[in-house]
Design a protein that fits this description.
Length: 154
């Protein structure tokens, strides 16, 4: 399986989930390490874009392509598993519970979850503490530049 992650260059190869542990995210509370990735490169761009203020042109971003065997454990959350308002902020407690339990139970290396931006597509949470995490390999790292048309106020 291939997944994609966009980060500042100095964090491009950091697969620790430390950022999510320090700040929390949609699928985890502070204190829980999770590596957020996307199922395709376009979704990775959209997921990064929603956090960039209008007219700010980020520099030194890299897209990291990760790969791991399809045979590793993959869990999946569908829209039917989630409350209707799961994508709203602040994060829904039941969504935070899903991510925290995914890491604590350590049954799966990765968990496919719907994207709040495009629920037809999925993000992939990786558990850095899972016994098979060493099978996650960086296979490519490329500079990424957003088309300026995407970075304007609508």
């Amino acid at each position: 399986m291939r997944v994609y992650r966009i980060a500042k260059g100095k964090y491009a190869q950091d697969l620790s989930g430390e950022g999510a542990r320090l700040y929390g995210g949609r699928w985890n509370r502070k204190g829980t390490s999770v590596l957020y990735t996307a199922g395709n490169s376009s979704l990775a761009m959209l997921e990064k874009l929603v956090h960039i203020p209008p007219y700010v042109f980020p520099k030194d971003l890299k897209i990291t392509v990760l790969e791991f065997p399809d045979k590793v454990g993959v869990g999946q959350i569908t829209l039917d598993d989630l409350p209707v308002d799961w994508m709203h902020r602040p994060e829904h407690p039941s969504v935070l519970d899903i991510g925290d339990q995914f890491v604590m139970q350590s049954e799966f290396l990765c968990l496919k979850v719907p994207s709040a931006i495009n629920p037809i597509d999925h993000n992939v949470l990786l558990n850095p503490k899972h016994r098979d995490f060493s099978k996650v390999k960086i296979i490519d790292e490329l500079p990424i530049i957003f088309d300026r048309r995407l970075l304007k106020e609508v």
